[in-house]
Amino acid sequence: MPRVKYKSSDIDLMARMMRAEAEGEGQQGMLYVGNVIVNRLVANCVDFRDLRSIEDVIFQIQGGNYSFEAVQKGNLFYQGARAVEKRLAKKNLDYWREHPGKYALWYFNPYAPCPPTWYGQPFAGQFKDHCFYEPAPGTCESVYNG
Predict the structure, then answer these.
(1) Domain count, the chain
(2) In a domain, 2, yes or no
């Protein structure tokens, strides 16, 4: 059973985002970004309440900006998804979860060492240039169950 309900258009959209956000970090890096996308849909807490689809997650606006920088800046996000990214996206949607993105709801590239917290959320781990952050204890139990 998949982690979340999805359509074929969700695979394409998620694949484009994974590539745009982490192509330089290889397939493993793209899988971690995919983990965060699925986790945000599962979470229904903190910054991610009432998201009901992959499209809702990708195009979510917070503080007047899209949650994912690639939506605003275009670049790779607006190019077609390739078969390899579609395969990775489907893998995330169906079952794939690994540390440091296993329960992460946030990631960013600080161009410096990863800080121990990010907006009050604890550091979960790092993969190449991306730092991953899980929800603070007691703030989002659903992400650990989904």
Answers:
(1) 1
(2) no
- Residue 89 belongs to some domain of the structure: yes
The CA distance from 79 to 89, in Å, is 16
Q: What is the mean pLDDT of each run of 10 residues along the chain (146 residues)?
A: 95 97 96 98 94 97 93 87 97 97 96 95 97 95 87
**DSSP H helices in 23-99:** 26-43, 54-58, 69-73, 83-94
Q: Which amino acid is it at 115?
A: P
Domain that holds residue 106: 8-144
What's 27's DSSP letter? H
pTM over 0.85: yes
Could you give the CA distance from residue 71 to residue 59 in angstroms, rounded to a whole number? 7
